[in-house]
Amino acid sequence: MNILFASPEVVPFAKTGGLADVAGSLPKELAREGQAVKVILPFYKSVKNLDLSLKPKKIGSFAFLTYEDSGIEYVFVVNDKYYDRDALYGDKTGDYPDNYLRFSYYAKSIVEFALHSGFKPDIIHLNDWQTGLVPIYLKMENSPIKTLFTIHNIAYQGLFKNSVLKDISVPRDFYHINGIEYYNKISFLKAGIIYSTAISTVSKKYSEEILTTEFGCGMDGILKTRAHDLYGILNGVDYKDWDPRNDKYIAEKYGPETIGGKVFCKKDLINASGLLEDTIERPLIGVISRLAEQKGIDLLAEAARDIVNAGASIIILGTGDEKYNKICADLADEFPGRVASLIKFDNALAHKIEAGSDFFAMPSRYEPCGLNQLYSLRYGTLPIVRATGGLDDTITDLYADPENGNGIKFQDATKDALIEAVKRGIALYQKRDTWHSTLRRIMGLDYSWQRSATFYRELYSKLINK
Ligand code: ADP
Prior knowledge:
Layout: E1 2-6, H1 18-32, E2 36-42, H2 45-48, E3 55-59, E4 62-69, E5 72-78, H3 80-83, E6 90-91, E7 94-95, H4 99-116, E8 123-127, H5 134-140, E9 146-151, E10 159-161, E11 181-182, E12 185-187, H6 188-195, E13 198-201, H7 204-209, H8 220-224, E14 230-232, H9 262-273, E15 284-291, H10 297-309, E16 313-320, H11 322-334, E17 339-343, H12 347-356, E18 359-362, H13 372-378, E19 382-386, H14 389-394, E20 408-410, H15 415-430, H16 432-443, H17 449-464
Bound molecules: adenosine-5'-diphosphate.
């Protein structure tokens, strides 16, 4: 199969969240299995800074740069006016106001490459709203190429004023209630949902949740009309990047057999974060997160006093909305030495937190898949999660199922439910004999891409033959 994989962020070139991890690893797994895969993304400043040895390619008026690695060709869309900026989507003041131009240009480039590069994709795998116009542009070219549109987070909808229709070269025929129109605006996400051959999202549970008013963010109605073409495929983990046995960022490498190494990682993390030295004797809860409403950071803040009083410490690494940046910073001021807040994006530190923490908290209001709970398992760091989306699909509560459980799970998005979950976790931590055997067991669980890549491959075949 020839697969063109389009994602606005891809590890190691550009990342703001989990989509980048997925786009960095799924194509590699597909290539390992013998598929011909090309990955296409904008030539951002972050890619430029990597100083890769790149080959130019011109198709019509579109300029590309290509780069080969691990059997994959990465295709970068060049347009400095749009992509040579400090961030991917926006700055402190908000989203870049010309995002509709930046990502319609990206979508046009994807179509140009698909039709005229000589690669001839059987399927284009699109990811999130930034790629949502691709099926419209394909339609305008009468192209029969099949598309799978994966939704990694339905709250990000690519909404713009309808007056931009002309600027993005979308004919008015597409502007109606069963088209790109969305409450008198246009939505790139909705275009992807309506005009793609099929739609998927990143866990079974989230694929069901987005059909409801509670989680659908206004798209549930339109998604229901496509429910037969909607799939849920869980993300996998790239254990080349996320395994304490070969993690270059952590103080001491360790595995299930050498779990004692974890304590050196905890010491290192305590030193790096300004937590009190006696934290080594206390349960330490790690958090790594985009700081957005979705992630339930406010619940954590409300619960912090009880959590600290119960004997635990907290380390937060995150950045995002100013409101939550401040909540986290204030929390560290309120509990000096017991709560550490690092308001930044720092991949090395993310690895240190996975390795050095005893617990990993994800009190999310919703979570399409979530990756850190899966990374945490491999690092022997017990996940404490809210039962939503991919968190619900991947974590089984240890009290409900002591033999197969792999974390602590709570139902309600309330501070009290979170506190209760943390206390249940601490009680397990204090039973030192069973604690380590539980950690060794969860470290052996396998969430690699293999299984999920097979689901994608089968789905691609089904769509190609449709
Ligand atoms: P989402 O995609 O909603 O942000 P996921 O759990 O799917 O959430 O993926 C988050 C990814 O981003 C993980 O790889 C996580 O380690 C990383 N990440 C999030 N915030 C930061 C940060 N401040 N510094 C470093 N890595 C981060």
